[in-house]
Amino acid sequence: MTRTPAPATLGPDQARTRLDDLVVLDVRTPAEYAAGHVPGALNIPLDHVRRALPDIRAAAERRDVLVVCASGARSESACRLLAGQGVAAAGLAGGTAAWAAAGHDLHTPGPRTPAAGAARTGWSMERQVRGTAGGLVLLGLLLGVLVHPALLLVPAAIAGGLVFSALTDTCGMAAVLARLPHNRPRGADLEAARASLRGV
Predict the structure, then answer these.
(1) What is the pLDDT of residues 161-189, one digit of tens each?
(2) Residue 113 φ/ψ region, left for φ over 0, alpha for ψ in the -120 to 50 degree band, beta for the rest
(3) pTM of the model
(4) From 68, 76, 171, 179, which residue has the greatest number of CB atoms within 10 Å?
């Protein structure tokens, strides 16, 4: 079956018109996904894309793949990873932020369990990074003033990390935070998403 490869990115309006013909993968954390996602999107967090690769590849043979994240950086990483494995995928330009700004609805599922309800109120990864970085800077400043001046290296290291993150468009802190339990998919949820891919 010969198909035209999907473009590198789709704008929110382009994606909206093609939504029924796309396999939409949301590569954000489960908490971010639960807080609101593109209708019909399946949650395969970025660090689980390799594990789901066989199912994504099979789905991509039947439909074009659209990868979504909060702003576009993680979806770009996922698209590069997939391209390296021979799977063509497009990213949603501007992510769910651009989708919502264009006036398109985000699906927010009702809680199935108390844990799911907690996930709905979770912070976005960007907010988690800002909160963690700010907290570490404040802690470093306090410890540097109250305990020992050498501890002022903590806020300096955080500042350096933020500059490096901006220059390379990567975020090591987000990668670490994504491994925390509240940001990890439950096995059943990830398997359900993979099963849905097999059913495409």
Answers:
(1) 888 888 877 778 877 887 787 777 665 57
(2) beta
(3) 0.71
(4) 68
